[in-house]
Amino acid sequence: MSDPPVIRALKSMTNSVKAWDATPLHSIFDQISPPNEPNAQTSTPYFLQAQRFSLTESALFPIAERPPVSADLQTQFNRAIEQCNAEPSIHLAQMLSLFHDYAWAVSYQPTAGEVADSVVSLYDYARTKAALAAAGEQAMLVGGDLSGVQDFIYTIAANRAAKSLRGRSFYLQMLTDALAGWVLQQAGMPSTNLLYSGGGRFYVIVPAACYEQLAQWRRELGQFLLNVHDGELYIALGGATIADAEHNFEALFRAVNDQVTADKRRRFATLDQRELQTKLFTPRGHRGNEDDRCETCGYMGPSSQFMPDDDEGKICRLCESTIKLGFSLHDAQFLCIRQPQPNLAAVKDRANAKDILAGLGLQAEICFDQQELLKYLNRNPEQSIHVQIIRPFADDLAMLTQLRADYRQHVFSMRPIVNVTPKAAKGEVKSFDQLAKASRGIKRFGVLRMDVDDLGDIFGYSLAKASLARISSLSAAFSRFFEGWVGEICRDQNIATSIYQTDQASNQATSHEQIYSVYSGGDDLFLVGSWDVLAHVANRIQHDLQRYTGYNRLIHVSAGLSLHTEKFPLYQAAKLAHHALDRAKDAAPRQAIRKNALDFLDQTIAWEAYPALLNWHQRLWQLYQGEHGMVRSLLQVLMELYSQYYEHSQQRQKSGKGHTAYGPWIWRGKYQLARIRQRHHTNQALQTLLDDIDELLFTGFDEPHRISLRTIEQLGLAARWTQLLIREQGD
């Protein structure tokens, strides 16, 4: 019996690779060019080092020197391929996992008649070629977008948010995977045909004949989600036919996204109108009986769908299951996936997370460590299980090789997930109250939201030769950073230590877990944590993204960071952080600094100015350690000067006179700083700081686009930042 087309396609890729030891893979980010210079590289060429996948700096970050490619890597790959299970579906999944493990950073050497592309890996070529082969001569790209995600995650009781968030976010990740898997199952397609799944969005390749089934898929999935989520969530679908391998894939994705957007605007439009009326527009529950209301999400329904909660209230089955899910995720290493036959009709009411996913054909189990994993595998010897390592390190590679050899009926792969939840001494998830109390100075928790600026442009006219393999490669590259490396940044508990190294008590505090990853994937993230740590986390993320993309000036992130009191509702905090992110992207004219900024303490500053801001802040903090009263007066003067500068600048802008902000604040500042200098003339560190301020404070006002690079703006923010850190310390 001959191999199915998709397996033949993958095998042809392995047989054609002749030069792993010669040609390094260029970074895909080298191909992001200005729209008026489509063939121009924006930076020095960067290369990935061919090695097995892991969440290590040497694996993920490109280098400027052409690295050698070890011939031993190909030998290991071929040996692993030979050990694949003979059963076609298992064989296919195992081959794809091996391509990802060994060939994610290997350049593909084309056969005769193929065109080389130095920025697309063998893995990305293999999975896109296999997907097209499985779909047949006429293929179609289908996209799905899960709407209602923001409200589902964040509209929960503030006092229960900490223990609910991680599980709800992870459930949505799994739900997106399950919805994509259901579409592939309906189309008769293998797992190779999943191009992307994350952030509530997925893309799959199916036969073009499935276009006629899109309406039916909308109805069936819409009915299912209406039953189990009461209209909270909806999956919008869109599709477009792929003409051939040379198709304009940038235009194809745009066409699919347009259809998805149109479907999203008409949620549940394909369903029976009478049922919609009953489900969405009639009173729920028992005429407002508060006894049958979930204390976490507010859902109201029959008593049978609730259970007692630890806090003497009631909780719905879905919330109870996501809380358990989030707790079991903390520091877990393995995610085990099985794919039973879907049965949408089996789940008709609000159910727990596992039952909902199983109805779509996905069963997920979490194993904390290898010992727990082996027990789980030995309990299920007859079923093929896809085991995903969700925090892959270089040390895991030997373990991964051994697992593949010992359990050839299962599939083993790497799947990074940003999975950081802070735990207290007794093992429970820290509440937002505890995160606020762990902060230096003022007791607040922070919410950080970040995303890549102009991502549509990057995937569109900024990405030269937008082939399917290139688009998939670029998407995978962003995912490796946001779904993998961001987690390592969040786990770096010493991230702020060097800034406050003279404060020994605070250094001890930062050794505790202070960051809660609600979500990170695709091109954006949402973190909650002690406010004083999050600013440094944001800076580290943008700095590492610069290195990761080879310092390509077209690729950058903006960030919004908001501060909140202990009991502040999460959904409001999420909105305020999003408003801060919008301000970072839409700050006043900065022609040379488009977006690429941080909004922090209600002030927007370009990342370009952040090193100077941090320097001022650190110097003020160090002075505070030596003489508290002196610094308090200096901070007050600097904040007052910034307030006067800002007010004067706004008045000029409203009058049409531009952003130049010379005014009375200048000579007032000269006078007030001189008085501080006289009062503390023996403090050399202060004198040096005041000399630097005097030299730089009143310069740089003749270039409007330099706003946020002006010293007065940096000093105003640094002073407020430092003041918040020294509040409520009892000195």
TrEMBL record:
Residues 443-603 form the GGDEF domain. Pfam families: Cas10-Cmr2_palm2, Csm1_B. Keywords: Antiviral defense, ATP-binding, Endonuclease, Exonuclease, Hydrolase, Nuclease, Nucleotide-binding, Transferase. InterPro entries: Cas10-Cmr2_palm2, Cas10/Csm1, Cas10/Csm1_subtype-III-A, Csm1_B, GGDEF_dom, Rev_trsase/Diguanyl_cyclase. PROSITE patterns: GGDEF. It comes from the Bacteria. Belongs to the CRISPR-associated Cas10/Csm1 family. This is CRISPR system single-strand-specific deoxyribonuclease Cas10/Csm1 (subtype III-A).
